[in-house]
Amino acid sequence: MALMITDECINCDVCEPACPNNAISMGDEFYKIDPAKCTECVGHFDEPQCVMLCPVACIPVNPAHVETRETLLQKYQRLTAASAG
Length: 85
Fold this sequence. Notes:
Elements: H1 15-18, E1 24-26, E2 31-33, H2 49-53, H3 69-84
Pfam family, one: Fer4_7
InterPro entries: 4Fe4S_Fe-S-bd, 4Fe4S_Fe_S_CS, PSI_iron-sulfur_center, YfhL-like
Protein name: YfhL family 4Fe-4S dicluster ferredoxin
């Protein structure tokens, strides 16, 4: 499952640098998460870092991008292989 940032985001800037996959960037009005890069920190950490750090709890699971832990791990492996090569 990829995560998403809702319009409750206050643009506090803590999530973007915490993302190990560089999946978070500034959108038109608030931060957004690229579902192709979001692994919910699987492969990096035990918990999604953005969710842990978010002061307003505006980062739920994106219902349009439901993935299993195995799928997230495969995505992590693809992303790290691509960045290493």
